[in-house]
Amino acid sequence: MDIALATNTDNPTLQFRNVGRFSDGSGYSAELLVRSRGFSVELPFYFEVEPLQNFINNLEAMDRSLKGKAILKPMYEDHFIEFEMGSSGHVIVRGQIIEYSEMSQSLKFEFQTDQTCLATLVRDLQKWQQINAT
């Protein structure tokens, strides 16, 4: 299953592709695709059950109240994706993706979309979570 943030444009893009759960049930994996202007990254992204649930809960609260913040950050890694409600219903999406290797690389990104995109993202994340609950 793939999950995409509907940004109402082709660029920026935020997608979780081929999402699945670890066989031991401890967490999830996805291929993360981010495009923000001329910058892009496509790397595996791993996170645990609790950070995903907190992210979904906080996105739901943001959608209802039009304020707040939601962060998807693995417990033992430095990379993250953050959604923050700004003024006039704008949602700021930012993050940092780090690839550790002999010659490590990182990408910090930030773009804006509007709050109408949150409900669909929440629904898709919940559906994905239910499918992978067992």
Summary keywords:
single chain; 134 residues; alpha+beta; Transcriptional Co-activator pc4, Chain A; four-stranded antiparallel sheet; 46% strand
| Average pLDDT | 91
Largest sheet geometry = 4 strands, antiparallel
The CATH topology turns out to be Transcriptional Co-activator pc4, Chain A
As for the number of domains, it is: 1
- Mind telling me the CATH class? Mainly Beta
**Secondary-structure-derived class:** alpha+beta
Radius of gyration: 14 Å
What is the 3D shape?
globular
Oligomer: single chain
Distance between the termini: 15 Å
Roughly what fraction of the amino acids lie in strands? over 45%
How are the strands of the biggest sheet laid out side by side?
1-2-3-4
Helix content: 10-25%
Work out the helix count: 2
Unreliable stretches (pLDDT < 50, length at least 5) are: none
DSSP, total strands: 8
Order of helices and strands: EEEEHEEEEH
Tell me the CATH architecture. Roll
Describe the model.
The protein has a single domain, classed as Roll (Transcriptional Co-activator pc4, Chain A). The chain is 23% helix and 46% strand. It has 2 helices and 8 strands; from the N terminus they run ββββαββββα. The chain has helices spanning 49-65, 118-131; strands at residues 3-4, 13-21, 27-36, 39-48, 69-72, 80-85, 90-99, 105-114. The strands form 2 sheets. It has a 4-stranded antiparallel beta sheet with strand order 1-2-3-4. Strands 5-6-7-8 form a 4-stranded antiparallel beta sheet. A hairpin with a 2-residue loop joins β3 and β4. The model has no long low-confidence stretch (mean pLDDT 91).
